[in-house]
Write a structure and sequence with these properties.
This protein has 161 residues and is mainly beta. 15% of the residues lie in helices and 52% in strands.
């Protein structure tokens, strides 16, 4: 009889452990997902302004926070249409919505040096109006910055000298 009760105790403990693990894992491990986009011109000249759009879609949004990483040797952060702070390669952005199904902002950089630069948008957190937490993939784009071509004159009047 003692053998049977120990067996039931072990099974009961095992079932409780499995249930506890399931409850704990459903907290944040199974967040709903939303789509994120990072778009803009991927080619420009030194001195040009590069405007990128960061856009979230997929639910009635409350808030979202993103971290934008970029190459400060090639791009210089200028401004953002959302609440943003930082520079020197990292910008923190806070977006707020009153329930719209799209949440977006425009980010401006100045091209300061020729080369290939990256801009990467990583979602820190995103919440719907009902306080559901959402997850989103990281988006990355490359930007090619070139030296502007010198203008060539069509005037060849002195070419024979």
């Amino acid at each position: 009889m003692k053998h049977i009760s120990n067996k039931y105790k072990k099974i009961t403990v095992l079932i409780l452990l499995v249930c506890c693990c399931f409850v704990i894992s459903t907290g944040e491990a199974f967040c709903d997902s939303i789509s994120v986009g990072l778009t803009g011109n991927n080619s420009c000249n030194i001195g040009d302004t590069v405007t990128l759009s960061l856009t979230y879609k997929g639910t009635q949004f409350g808030t979202a926070k993103a971290e934008i990483k970029y190459d400060p040797k090639v791009l210089q952060y200028e401004s953002c249409t959302a609440v943003a702070h930082g520079g020197n390669g990292v910008i923190s952005i806070s977006l707020t919505s009153g329930g719209s199904d799209t949440l977006s902002c425009m980010i401006k950089f100045k091209a300061i040096k020729a080369g290939n630069a990256y801009v990467e948008a990583h979602t820190i957190e995103a919440y719907g109006l009902d306080e559901t937490q959402y997850s989103a993939s990281t988006k990355k784009m490359n930007i090619s910055v070139k030296n502007p071509s010198p203008s060539v004159s069509s005037n060849a009047n002195l070419s024979r000298l």
